[in-house]
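Quick check before the chapter quiz. The format below is the same one you will see on the exam, so make sure you can read both the input and the output lines.
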Amino acid sequence: MEQVFGIDKEVLVALLGFGGAVIPAVIGLFPKSGDAEHRRASIAIGQWTVLLAMAAGLSGALAGPVGAAFVEIAPMENASPHLANWAFFGVVIGSAQWLALMSAGANPKLWILATTIGWTPCALFFTEPWAWPAFGALSALLQSVLNPRSVSKPIVWIGANALGWFVAGNAGVFAGVAFVEQIGFAAAWVAGWAVVGFTAGLITGLFANACLARPEAAS
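Here is the expected output.
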């Protein structure tokens, strides 16, 4: 399959199309700094969900190049590309959530780090059926521990993430299988990962305003 910058052309086209469709919507979701919605500092569920869908889709699209680059530069022998892939997944998911929190006026400084640490060990267990809820919960736990002023209800937040990522992982597999005959394996792979992010974002987003502290409480 033809590649562009180390990425399958079919994957790149799917990613660009996906980004072109949702980026304008994401920009529109960010409140202006002076408006009442910003001052109220609520987290927009739609924004949270779309950002996570974009992040997970990006993670799926770049899984091959990221894994290959890690194996190339890793100092240890027999380095697994899955380690880099899941670390990258944690980075982009954490970044998406952090952007949504920032747009609501919050600034949990260790959020991306916590999310990355939480998802990276999934590289060792990603084929296990319990991996999605377990590492979703671990990520939420570390978000709560490293950003204690930003998570007002850690137990509920951890449970919401366990549920959200369990449903999301299964939804992503189902979507990828369903799409593969219509759009090809590479595009279906990206679409499946985007469905993972969308589903997890939708479920955890329903709990975000109840579980994540408002900026005035977190400052």
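If your answer matched, good. The CA atoms of residues 7 and 62 lie 7 Å apart.
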